[in-house]
Amino acid sequence: MKHDILSALGSHPWAEALIWYDSIDSTNDEAKRLAANGAPHGTVIISHHQTKGRGRMGRSFHSPTGKGIYLSVILRPQCKPDELMHLTCATAVAMCDAVENTCNIRPGIKWINDLILASNKLGGILTELSLNGDGTVHYAIVGIGINCKHRKEDFPEELQDMATSLEMYTKTPVSQPLLAANMIRALEGMANNLFTKKYTVMDCYRSDCVTIGREVIVHTPAENLQGLAIDVDPDGALVVRLSDGQMRAVQAGEVSVRGLYGYSQ
Question: Is the peptide bond before 112 cis (omega within 30 degrees of 0)?
Fold first, then answer.
C-alpha cells in the first residue's frame, strides 16, 4: 500500500519521509523512538496493523490488519508546551477535512479527540509531547486511527454498538491510500497553520464538535460533575455549566456525552 499512498501524494514535501510497516506495536511508539533519534519534522509512520495501538487515558485502540489507517507524524514546533494546548483540536479538524475530501462526508468531533459518525466512534487521536531541558518542546507526536473497512463483526463485542467505519456508514468502498494521502496533506497544512490560524481552526472545531450543547458527565480523579457543555475555549478546554450554575473549563479527563456511546440517562 505504500506505493499507492505515494502515488496519491505525488510530490508532497512529506512523501520522502513516509515509513511503512506491515505490523508494528504502535505507530506513536515508533514515532517516539524515531524522534528521539533525530527523525525530522514531517516524518510519517503508517502501519497495516498495530499489536498495541493506544488511545487516550491508557486505552487500547483496536487495529486489525487492513481495516483502518493507523498513522503517526513527528512534528518539531519551536515553542513552549502551553502553546500547543489546541494541537489535538487542530488535528481533529484536519482529519474531518481529510475524510470529507475522500468520502464526501464530514465526521463530527466528540470532545476532545474522537471522530464520530451517526453517534458512533469512527476514529481517535492521540497527541504526545517530549520536552527539552529548558522546558521547550523537543517534538510532538500526533497519532490517528480511522476505521475504514470494518464490518460490525470486526470490532470486539464490547465495541460493536459504539463503533463504526467509513464503509459501514457509506455502504461504498473506501480507498485507503487516498484517505492516507489526504490525511498527510491535511496534517501538513495543520502544522503550517497551527499558530498563525489558531482562532480560525478553533472556530472550525466548535462547528464540528457535537459535544457543545449537550448534557455531559465530566469524570475526574476526584469527582464526577454533571452539566451542559456550552463552548470550547481557544486552548481546547471544554466549558461546562454545572448543575449548580458554576462554570468549569475542563482541560483533561473523560467526558460522557448524552446520546453518544450508550450514555442516555
Answer: yes
- Alpha-carbon distance of 110 to 211, in angstroms, equals 6
The amino acid occupying position 50 is: Q
Residues 129, 111: Cα–Cα separation, whole Å: 20
Q: Cβ–Cβ contacts within 10 Å for residue 229, how many? A: 23
Q: Is the peptide bond before 105 cis (omega within 30 degrees of 0)?
A: no
Cell numbers for 95: 482529519
Instruction: Output the nine-digit C-alpha cell for 242.
Output: 454545572
pTM (whole model) above 0.90? yes
The percent helix, strand, coil of the chain (3-state, each to 5) is: 30, 30, 40
Q: Nearest 5°: CA angle at 87, between 211 and 57?
A: 65
SS3 72: strand
The rounded Cα 169 to chain-centroid distance in angstroms is 19
d(CA 251, CA 202): 15
Residue 147 φ/ψ, nearest 5 degrees? -75, 125
- How does pLDDT run across 104-152, given as a tens digit for each residue? 999 999 999 999 999 999 999 999 999 999 999 999 999 999 999 989 8
